[in-house]
Design a protein that fits this description.
Structural class: mainly alpha
Number of strands: 0
Number of helices: 18
Shape: globular
Order of helices and strands: HHHHHHHHHHHHHHHHHH
Largest sheet: none
Oligomer: single chain
Distance between the termini: 35 Å
Amino acid sequence: MNNPAAVAEDPTKVGGLRWFYLILAVLLMCMISGVQYSWTLYANPVKDLLGVSLAAVQTSFTLSQVIQAGSQPGGGYFVDKFGPKVPLIVAGIMVGAGWILMGMAPNVLMLYVLYTLAGAGVGIVYGTAMNIANRWFPDKRGMCSGFTAAGYGLGVLPFLPLISNVLKFEGVGAAFMYTGVIMGAVIVLIAFFVRFPAGPAGKKKVIVPTEKDFNSNEMLKTPQFWILWTSFFSVNFGGLLLVANSVPYGRSLGYAAGFLTIAVTVQNLFNGGCRPFWGFVSDKIGRYKTMSVVFGINCLVLLAFPYVARMGETAFMIALALAFFTWGGSYALFPATNSDLFGTAYSARNYGFFWAAKAVAAIFGGGLGAAVATALGWNTAFAITAFTSFVAFALATFVVPRMGRPVKKNKAVQVQAAQ
């Protein structure tokens, strides 16, 4: 019983090693950030290049978000079973190849195919990086999930000046190629250095489930999952509309391209920078209380957004900063909550099912969001997103905290039978 080889590695007792793995997880997120957060710079140039409508181009963004969710449970299965190395290598190739070839797409159909290829790779990388943080930091799960998620929000920043300059002087194809090569190569390189905490007998790829670990089938049978899923979907509704359309919306207000590039930088600073902050807060006061604060403020910001944004460049930038500061925190809160409630043994694939909420929200935030704004006006579009954020606030405040911890369905049946 005292044989150390029979005991799983304790991640809290490995010193600075786990911080090294956290840094690698953050770098992985930085490499996939641009696939989502730089798209708003590409949208209009791609529209002009292909000669199609903005809604048609933004549909590619929607499809990419959808496939991100679809790839996470499947990719997570292999990550949970075999470790992160091989899935990350495959995902890095998918991201790099898809993004590079998007610049050569001859029509919108091929754009859809290639953006979904890159998006599938992003989903695998995202789930793997988040689980590196969650498994190495069970004692600081919220904060370290926040740092990892911050890489996704902030990682695009070094790319933005490069993308803007290349788009201006060399065109869309070159911008996709340069960034795609960097992203794909770095992901593949990092794959050779990351690992999860070792299981019993030092097996690095084996996670032994405990009674607290829910597999995906068990998790999907709990009401807690579906309420949290609905909350995640609701708060992502407005955030993703802004991610896809902040520059097109700014252009509709008459703001210059140079200013909008700066505005995108600011929005991503607040989007990524808020994630460690809200994760740290949630470690101190609890996940649900933090969700209540964040989502409540986000609802008010989105309701006021179209009125404030048209007041001038400074007001537009402040409104963007507040909207992203109160939306980005969800990406620190939900992965930590997933591991808190359903354990870490199956957390890579489990979080993929949570991520499906983001994919469904992206349908509205991408092409459909632009279509609604075109048909009914931006005021109506933002009013709808404010309502969905209110739903997220209400669920996190009044419903989920009263449900208690989830119970496996088969175990609940056994308890009832015993009674």
